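Practice problem: predict the structure.
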Amino acid sequence: MRPVRKTLRMLENPSEEKDKETQLRQTKAHLLTIGQQIEKCCEGKSEEWITEWTENLWAFVSQFTVTGSKQLKKLLQQGYTTEQLKYIQTSLQKSERDDNGVSASQFY
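Answer:
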C-alpha cells in the first residue's frame, strides 16, 4: 500500500472548502486508485489468499476514513463504468492542478 500512501492521506483529510458533490467525486477517485493498487497486490495469487488479503487491505484503508471497509468497497463498486471512472480521475487531476498549480499525477 506504500504506492498509494499519499492518496490515503488525501482520503483521510478531505478539503473542507469544496462542496459535498466535489468531495464525493474526489473520494470515489481516490478509492479507485486504492482499489487498483489492491488488485495489483493480489495478482497471481490463489483465490483463498486474494479473498483474505482483499478484506484485510480494505480494513486497513477504512482506518483512514469514518466509513467501514464493506461500505468503502460498495462505494467503489456502485455501478461506475470504466469510462466514468476515467472521467472522474481526469477531472480530479485537472481540479487539483488548478488548485495547487501542481499536477495530481505527481502524487501517484
